[in-house]
Amino acid sequence: VQLLESGGGLVQPGGSLTLSCAASESIENYHAMAWYRQAQGKDRESVAATTRAGMSVYAPFVQGRFNIYRDGGENTLNLQMNDLKPEDTAMYYCAAQVSVSSDGYDYWGQGTQVTVSS
Question: What confidence score (pLDDT) does residue 69 get?
Fold first, then answer.
């Protein structure tokens, strides 16, 4: 399975971007999918996750600004990011957990860079 992120780029503070993660197979039955990010010199951190049951969770630092959602018809996971801040600058990765019994996320993408700067 391959996950391919897209949609990153350079945006001014306060701007918006939508990231997409295209899977090479159907994501309909994946237990969970998530977005992580890693800023230069920092550890990778969870941004948001969504389950097949429809539950979504967000890191406190993006709550109210980001929205994670699946598009089953297109086999994509999206992350709508609003009111972007310079501290949101990072490489963003999507991840997929196929089964609830999986030990963590089974698949990871290569990442897409988001840079927030004036």
Answer: 95
What is the rounded CA–CA span in Å between residue 78 and residue 21? Answer: 6
What integer pLDDT is reported at residue 115 of this predicted model? Answer: 98
Residue 6 has a CB neighbour count (10 Å cut-off) of 13
Q: What is the pLDDT of residues 2-61, one digit of tens each?
A: 999 999 999 999 999 999 999 998 888 899 999 999 999 999 999 999 999 989 999 999
DSSP 8-state assignment for residue 31: S
In 3-state terms the chain splits into helix, strand, coil percentages (rounded to 5) of: 5, 50, 45
Q: What tokens were used for 56?
A: 């979504």
- Look up residue 30 and give its two tokens: 């994946």
Is residue 72 predicted with pLDDT exceeding 80?
Answer: no
C-alpha triplet 40, 43, 47: angle, nearest 5° = 95
Judge whether 38 and 22 are in contact, CB under 8 Å.
no
Q: What's the rounded Cα separation, in Å, for the pair 101 and 5? A: 25
